[in-house]
Amino acid sequence: MSSNCPESDASDTAVAPNNQWSSASSNQWSSVSKHVVNSYVEANNALLAAMGFSPSRSSEPNGEPSESTEEPVTPGRQPETADAPVAEVAFGDETWFMERSTDSCEDLAVGDYVRFTKPIEDTDVSAFAQVSGDTNRLHLVEEFADETQFGGRIAHGTLVAGTISAALARFPGLTVYLSQDLEFQAPVEIGETVTATCEIVELLGDTRYRLHTTVETADGETVIDGEAIVIIETQSDA
Protein backbone atom coordinates (compact mmCIF):
# COMPACT_ATOMS: atom_id res chain seq x y z
CA MET A 1 0.00 0.00 0.00
CA SER A 2 1.41 3.28 -0.96
CA SER A 3 1.78 6.11 1.49
CA ASN A 4 0.38 9.62 1.28
CA CYS A 5 2.86 10.58 -1.40
CA PRO A 6 5.67 8.83 -3.29
CA GLU A 7 8.81 8.89 -1.17
CA SER A 8 10.82 12.03 -1.79
CA ASP A 9 14.58 12.56 -1.91
CA ALA A 10 16.53 15.34 -0.24
CA SER A 11 16.70 16.99 -3.66
CA ASP A 12 12.93 17.52 -3.76
CA THR A 13 11.72 21.09 -3.96
CA ALA A 14 11.63 22.58 -0.46
CA VAL A 15 8.52 24.39 0.64
CA ALA A 16 8.43 28.15 0.81
CA PRO A 17 9.03 29.73 4.22
CA ASN A 18 5.28 29.98 4.80
CA ASN A 19 4.98 26.24 4.17
CA GLN A 20 2.37 26.90 1.48
CA TRP A 21 2.85 24.62 -1.47
CA SER A 22 2.17 25.90 -4.97
CA SER A 23 -0.91 25.33 -7.09
CA ALA A 24 1.21 23.21 -9.40
CA SER A 25 2.27 21.04 -6.48
CA SER A 26 -1.35 20.75 -5.40
CA ASN A 27 -2.43 19.70 -8.88
CA GLN A 28 0.42 17.22 -9.07
CA TRP A 29 -0.60 15.86 -5.66
CA SER A 30 -4.16 15.28 -6.85
CA SER A 31 -3.02 13.69 -10.09
CA VAL A 32 -0.54 11.32 -8.46
CA SER A 33 -2.78 10.45 -5.53
CA LYS A 34 -6.04 9.70 -7.37
CA HIS A 35 -6.53 5.94 -7.51
CA VAL A 36 -8.86 3.07 -6.72
CA VAL A 37 -7.67 1.31 -3.57
CA ASN A 38 -7.99 -2.35 -4.49
CA SER A 39 -6.52 -3.57 -1.20
CA TYR A 40 -8.28 -1.03 1.01
CA VAL A 41 -9.71 -3.68 3.34
CA GLU A 42 -6.21 -4.94 4.14
CA ALA A 43 -5.09 -1.39 4.86
CA ASN A 44 -8.09 -0.98 7.15
CA ASN A 45 -7.00 -3.98 9.20
CA ALA A 46 -3.63 -2.32 9.75
CA LEU A 47 -5.33 0.96 10.61
CA LEU A 48 -7.70 -0.69 13.08
CA ALA A 49 -4.76 -2.23 14.90
CA ALA A 50 -2.94 1.11 14.95
CA MET A 51 -5.98 2.89 16.35
CA GLY A 52 -6.62 0.25 19.02
CA PHE A 53 -9.36 -1.70 17.29
CA SER A 54 -9.47 -5.49 17.20
CA PRO A 55 -10.10 -6.78 13.65
CA SER A 56 -13.28 -8.77 13.24
CA ARG A 57 -12.92 -12.46 14.07
CA SER A 58 -14.98 -13.45 11.03
CA SER A 59 -14.41 -12.03 7.57
CA GLU A 60 -16.55 -11.88 4.46
CA PRO A 61 -14.72 -12.83 1.25
CA ASN A 62 -15.72 -9.54 -0.36
CA GLY A 63 -15.76 -7.15 2.53
CA GLU A 64 -14.97 -6.19 6.09
CA PRO A 65 -17.69 -6.59 8.74
CA SER A 66 -17.98 -3.75 11.22
CA GLU A 67 -20.55 -3.99 13.99
CA SER A 68 -21.59 -0.97 16.02
CA THR A 69 -23.66 -0.77 19.17
CA GLU A 70 -22.25 2.62 20.11
CA GLU A 71 -24.50 5.45 21.25
CA PRO A 72 -24.37 8.72 19.28
CA VAL A 73 -21.85 11.22 20.57
CA THR A 74 -22.17 14.94 20.04
CA PRO A 75 -18.93 16.74 19.05
CA GLY A 76 -17.54 18.56 22.07
CA ARG A 77 -18.83 15.98 24.53
CA GLN A 78 -16.87 13.02 25.86
CA PRO A 79 -18.25 9.75 24.48
CA GLU A 80 -20.19 7.73 27.03
CA THR A 81 -18.27 4.65 25.88
CA ALA A 82 -14.80 6.16 26.33
CA ASP A 83 -12.16 3.52 26.99
CA ALA A 84 -14.79 0.76 27.15
CA PRO A 85 -15.21 -1.91 24.42
CA VAL A 86 -18.67 -1.75 22.86
CA ALA A 87 -18.39 -4.19 19.93
CA GLU A 88 -15.99 -6.44 18.06
CA VAL A 89 -14.25 -3.63 16.19
CA ALA A 90 -15.24 -0.45 18.01
CA PHE A 91 -14.64 1.31 21.30
CA GLY A 92 -14.75 4.89 22.48
CA ASP A 93 -11.98 7.32 23.35
CA GLU A 94 -12.23 10.73 24.95
CA THR A 95 -10.61 12.36 21.91
CA TRP A 96 -12.98 10.72 19.42
CA PHE A 97 -16.40 12.07 18.53
CA MET A 98 -19.24 10.65 16.48
CA GLU A 99 -22.44 12.06 15.03
CA ARG A 100 -25.02 10.16 13.01
CA SER A 101 -28.38 11.04 11.52
CA THR A 102 -30.26 7.89 12.52
CA ASP A 103 -30.03 5.06 15.04
CA SER A 104 -32.17 2.66 13.00
CA CYS A 105 -30.78 0.40 10.30
CA GLU A 106 -34.27 -0.12 8.88
CA ASP A 107 -34.77 3.61 8.33
CA LEU A 108 -31.58 4.29 6.35
CA ALA A 109 -32.24 6.59 3.40
CA VAL A 110 -30.48 8.92 1.00
CA GLY A 111 -29.01 11.76 3.05
CA ASP A 112 -28.31 9.71 6.17
CA TYR A 113 -24.75 10.10 7.39
CA VAL A 114 -22.15 9.35 10.03
CA ARG A 115 -19.31 11.69 11.02
CA PHE A 116 -16.28 10.51 12.94
CA THR A 117 -13.65 12.88 14.36
CA LYS A 118 -10.23 12.12 15.83
CA PRO A 119 -6.77 13.68 16.03
CA ILE A 120 -4.01 12.05 13.98
CA GLU A 121 -1.30 11.76 16.60
CA ASP A 122 2.38 10.89 16.29
CA THR A 123 1.65 7.65 18.13
CA ASP A 124 -0.91 6.76 15.43
CA VAL A 125 1.68 7.34 12.70
CA SER A 126 4.33 5.24 14.45
CA ALA A 127 1.90 2.40 15.16
CA PHE A 128 0.55 2.44 11.61
CA ALA A 129 4.06 2.29 10.18
CA GLN A 130 4.80 -0.72 12.38
CA VAL A 131 1.67 -2.73 11.62
CA SER A 132 1.45 -1.85 7.91
CA GLY A 133 5.15 -1.96 7.08
CA ASP A 134 4.93 1.48 5.44
CA THR A 135 8.08 3.05 6.87
CA ASN A 136 8.40 5.81 4.28
CA ARG A 137 10.79 8.40 5.72
CA LEU A 138 8.34 11.15 4.78
CA HIS A 139 6.19 10.02 7.70
CA LEU A 140 8.87 9.09 10.23
CA VAL A 141 12.11 11.04 9.77
CA GLU A 142 11.87 14.77 10.50
CA GLU A 143 15.21 15.69 8.96
CA PHE A 144 14.29 14.00 5.69
CA ALA A 145 10.72 15.34 5.58
CA ASP A 146 11.92 18.90 6.24
CA GLU A 147 13.66 18.90 2.86
CA THR A 148 10.59 17.81 0.87
CA GLN A 149 7.87 19.97 -0.65
CA PHE A 150 5.81 19.40 2.51
CA GLY A 151 8.34 20.97 4.85
CA GLY A 152 7.87 18.34 7.51
CA ARG A 153 6.41 14.96 8.35
CA ILE A 154 2.89 14.13 7.22
CA ALA A 155 0.52 11.29 8.10
CA HIS A 156 0.16 8.23 5.90
CA GLY A 157 -2.65 8.70 3.40
CA THR A 158 -4.19 5.34 4.22
CA LEU A 159 -4.03 6.09 7.94
CA VAL A 160 -6.09 9.23 7.39
CA ALA A 161 -8.40 7.41 4.96
CA GLY A 162 -9.00 4.80 7.62
CA THR A 163 -11.14 7.28 9.52
CA ILE A 164 -13.69 6.62 6.75
CA SER A 165 -13.76 3.00 7.88
CA ALA A 166 -14.17 4.18 11.47
CA ALA A 167 -17.19 6.26 10.41
CA LEU A 168 -18.72 3.34 8.51
CA ALA A 169 -18.34 1.14 11.59
CA ARG A 170 -20.67 3.51 13.41
CA PHE A 171 -23.65 3.15 11.09
CA PRO A 172 -26.43 1.24 12.87
CA GLY A 173 -26.30 -2.46 12.06
CA LEU A 174 -23.49 -4.46 10.47
CA THR A 175 -21.49 -2.66 7.77
CA VAL A 176 -19.52 -4.64 5.17
CA TYR A 177 -17.10 -2.87 2.81
CA LEU A 178 -17.46 -3.77 -0.88
CA SER A 179 -15.39 -1.05 -2.56
CA GLN A 180 -13.77 2.33 -1.95
CA ASP A 181 -12.48 4.95 -4.39
CA LEU A 182 -10.19 7.65 -3.00
CA GLU A 183 -8.60 10.89 -4.15
CA PHE A 184 -5.97 12.35 -1.84
CA GLN A 185 -6.27 16.12 -2.28
CA ALA A 186 -3.94 17.47 0.41
CA PRO A 187 -1.57 16.21 3.11
CA VAL A 188 -2.46 15.96 6.79
CA GLU A 189 0.08 17.20 9.30
CA ILE A 190 0.75 15.10 12.36
CA GLY A 191 -1.33 16.42 15.24
CA GLU A 192 -4.19 17.67 13.05
CA THR A 193 -7.76 16.66 13.87
CA VAL A 194 -9.78 15.27 10.97
CA THR A 195 -13.44 14.43 10.44
CA ALA A 196 -14.60 11.65 8.15
CA THR A 197 -18.13 11.93 6.77
CA CYS A 198 -19.96 9.06 5.07
CA GLU A 199 -23.29 10.04 3.50
CA ILE A 200 -25.69 7.74 1.66
CA VAL A 201 -26.25 9.03 -1.88
CA GLU A 202 -27.94 6.03 -3.51
CA LEU A 203 -29.90 2.94 -2.45
CA LEU A 204 -28.66 0.06 -4.61
CA GLY A 205 -31.06 -2.57 -3.29
CA ASP A 206 -30.43 -5.77 -1.31
CA THR A 207 -29.09 -3.71 1.63
CA ARG A 208 -26.39 -2.19 -0.60
CA TYR A 209 -25.66 1.53 -0.48
CA ARG A 210 -23.47 3.99 -2.35
CA LEU A 211 -21.90 6.64 -0.10
CA HIS A 212 -19.99 9.86 -0.64
CA THR A 213 -16.97 9.73 1.65
CA THR A 214 -14.82 12.69 2.65
CA VAL A 215 -12.18 13.57 5.21
CA GLU A 216 -11.76 17.20 6.28
CA THR A 217 -9.45 19.07 8.62
CA ALA A 218 -10.73 21.22 11.47
CA ASP A 219 -10.43 24.21 9.11
CA GLY A 220 -12.87 22.61 6.68
CA GLU A 221 -10.28 21.70 4.04
CA THR A 222 -11.13 18.50 2.19
CA VAL A 223 -8.06 16.25 2.23
CA ILE A 224 -9.69 13.06 0.91
CA ASP A 225 -12.69 12.68 -1.37
CA GLY A 226 -14.19 9.44 -2.58
CA GLU A 227 -17.03 6.98 -2.87
CA ALA A 228 -17.79 3.72 -1.12
CA ILE A 229 -20.20 0.87 -1.74
CA VAL A 230 -21.20 -1.08 1.35
CA ILE A 231 -23.71 -3.54 2.70
CA ILE A 232 -25.52 -2.43 5.86
CA GLU A 233 -27.55 -5.19 7.47
CA THR A 234 -29.68 -5.44 10.56
CA GLN A 235 -27.79 -7.27 13.27
CA SER A 236 -29.72 -10.02 15.03
CA ASP A 237 -29.85 -10.16 18.82
CA ALA A 238 -28.73 -13.79 18.82
UniProtKB/TrEMBL annotation:
Domain MaoC-like as annotated: residue spans: 117-210
Chain intervals for the UniProt region annotation (Disordered): 1-28, 53-83
GO molecular function: (3R)-hydroxyacyl-[acyl-carrier-protein] dehydratase activity
CDD domains reported in the protein's UniProt record: R_hydratase (cd03449)
GO terms, biological process: fatty acid biosynthetic process
SUPFAM superfamilies listed in its UniProt record: Thioesterase/thiol ester dehydrase-isomerase
Residue ranges, compositional bias (Low complexity): 18-28
Gene3D superfamilies (UniProt xref): Hotdog Thioesterase
InterPro entries: HotDog_dom_sf, MaoC-like_dom, UPF0336/Enoyl-CoA_hydratase
Top-level taxon in the UniProt lineage: Archaea
Official protein name in the record: MaoC family dehydratase
Organism: Haloterrigena alkaliphila
